[in-house]
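User: Hello, can you help with two protein structures?

Assistant: Certainly.
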Amino acid sequence: MSAVVEFRAASYRIGAREILKSLTLSVEAGETLVLLGRSGSGKTTALKMVNGLLFPSAGEVLVDGTATTAWEPVRLKRRIGYVIQEIGLFPHYTVAENVGVVPRLENWDAPRIRTRVDMLLRQVGLDPEQFAARYPAQLSGGQRQRVGVARALAADPSVLLFDEPFGAVDPVTRLDLQKQFLALRRDLGKTAIFVTHDVREALMLASRIALLRDGALELLATPRQFLDATGVEARAFLACLDWKVGQASGLSQDPQ
């Protein structure tokens, strides 16, 4: 496989504070790299450096072999699908208009846009006849997030970025969205970088997990390798799984 995204000793500073410290790793074509870490570990900073929302203070980040600093900014952003927790749908646009934003900017003709929008809505589990003409305010949180994913896919980007996209929905909807993400990954084979602080989500969705701690790469591993990791930070995250199982077991017992 060939690298679609590369971090080459990429660092990011604000004044004297180093938020990301000489990050070096590659994201291969078709894989989902999950950036896992505590709040303030640098994972969202790393993500934003991929589509040019931030630029390295030192080192470089490459997309399709070209440094982000050498890309024309608008072309880079349109080449990358971006899904965030707040979704960011335009409230005065219908669902169909929201999904079709980038194709319209790319001067696709109306029939092509309509066909693409209908196809993507079906892929994310929304019937276009039922949902295309609705406005974001008429949707549930989970439905809005599905529209956000469809919009990110609209112009067939080479890379998808997900910044804790499912963190604001209830646990049942979150699991449904995670399963939908896995189905899309299987069907479309897209390269994705996914930020989360939830180790269970990381183990479920990742091809590989990059564990960040205080801005530095602590561990790069497959989910299976991560489960066997012995490092302090990895074991701290894995302990959360044991705690949840223990809590569920305790709650299921009758009080004495």
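That covers the first. Now for the second protein you mentioned:
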Amino acid sequence: MNWDAIGASGEVFGAIAVVISIGYLAIQIRESTRTAKLAATRDLFSEFHLAVSANSADDIITEIWLVGVRDRSRLTHADRFRFGQMLYRMLAAFEQQYLHLQENTISSKYFEAQIGAFEATVTYPGVRDFWEANKKIFHDDFQRYVNDLIRSTPETAADEFKPKRIDIDV
């Protein structure tokens, strides 16, 4: 019996087993990463949806939102605070999406789908006014992103503002 040949065969089989184990581990890590991205995307979507849908919770809130996006100064002090809270919550949710995208922890396809809604929001004078007054509470990278978006997106004149009706068939 050639012990050297048996030892060499054992080393070859051991090396093959290590390569297979590493391949399997790589597949598991990739799947775990994909699952984590989907979970983060779902959570961020839920938070953004809650923030946006709060703007139409009832007739009073909707009116505050519609007046505020046109001209924040037309709101009472209390309603300006409510409008600011609604807008802050929406901006903070979008900021989280943006920062997750920068870290590659959410799907870029999801983020790209949200950009249209966000671009439409930053066209409103009341939103731009709020942003200018409060942008320092947001992350520097997000500030640059929103500032660039505002510079590249024309403002909707307050007297031209007409909310679009969106009908959704369920």
